[in-house]
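Final report, section 2: Outcomes. Of the targets proposed, Craniofacial development protein 2-like is the one most frequently requested by collaborating groups, and we therefore present its record in full.
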Amino acid sequence: MPQPVSDRIMTVRLPLSNDNCDTIIGVYDPTMTNPDENKKAFYNQLASVLSGIPRTNKLQLIGDFNARIRRDNDKWPLVVGKRGIGKCNSNGELLLALCSEFELIVTNTSSSRMMNARPPGCILVPNSGI
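The predicted structure is given below as tokens.
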């Protein structure tokens, strides 16, 4: 059963074998026109949710992050691949910092598929084992 955290964050936990779960977090990040305080509050709340998920769980963080992730991955080598789009915006910087803190990878920057053929948003997964 989906659990709303806020009007922008929702979680679903699906039981797997061995008492583990697949935790799916759906998000809708504030748009670029929102004040920075709103964006930071969103990422603080999301960090709080991520902190409460056991590391043994499978994790998928999906949604519309209103973020642009740059092609240059020198600053975030464990988080982003070489297939970002253009320049990073402020939402992208916040997203990358969160991913770095929780050891997540922005998977759609590692794929060789056409970036503009995908829907908005991205899927983030723990970077161990990939």
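The chain has a mean pLDDT of 80.
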